[in-house]
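Input.
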Amino acid sequence: MKKTHPQQSRPPADRMGAVVLSRYSVGDSDYIVTFLTREQGLVSALAKNARQSIRRFGGNLLSPGMAAWYYLRQRPNSNLAFVERGEINPAAPNLPMDPICRALVAWALELVRAFEAHHNPAEPTFNLLLRHFGALAAASDFAAPSLAARRLSFGFTKCYLQIAGFGVGAENCCICGKKDSESWYAEPSFDGLICRQCERFLDRRLHNIPNSLREALLTTATHRSSPQLDEETLNIAENYFQHRASVQAGRAFKSPKVLRQLLENNPSDASNARRESMNSPMNSPMNAPMNTPISASINAPINASINASSVQQNTPNSNDDRIRPGSEGV
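Output.
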């Protein structure tokens, strides 16, 4: 007699607000996508036939940087879930097409991807990332949007490293505890700044930290409260943060190389940045209020929607997910 097996029912899909951090091609039509969720931290999921299915993943819903609702079904005894479909929400930010802004988005995604863990709740990181996207969208209205975006990225990086446990102590010297020094230095593997006296005894190359950067590091941990930093100070800050993140992650990051290349190829933006810094010192997006849609999206209950399509409608839909100028892929 032929044996009959009871039909196994599939577990239902969970509807989760998520940000796409990265995606990788599998075969001719599938993707493996890494999401950041509020409830479970990182979630890696297989999107079957994602390249052909406009109905399930239209509007570039699986492109890095998208924030939307996704139906995720966990697989028994597996760390790889299935993503069945996504939903667009018009309340999400519309990130500008500025290539430097896109490179900064790629840096934020790559940084979060390096330090968050799978199936570990990440509500502070999730909220911070969405607020950062909203502030970047508002930065396009300023006279020098690239400078404004870089200031916002500085604040985001400072806050996220604190969340991840790699914040930089700037109140006193991390070696001797001295609070006053004629000059300050930093070493990526140290958790704080180094005074001039201790720097003389360290046989290694250190980052010179200007007083304006030290003051910015001392401000309250919010990505909108950092003082306005000029272009030269931002270069120092970005270089230091990127080295510190690389030391902690144990690997190099790709997006900073793209950002440096873009900054070298856009000298006109530097002049606009200096003019904006001199003429409107109080108009930095650091001090600008959060736009309403993002704040509402972050604090909304699970049955509200996070928009994704407007974030991605300007993002190239390419099968090559490597980071390149003008793309936020990680």
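The first strand starts at residue 14 and ends at 26.
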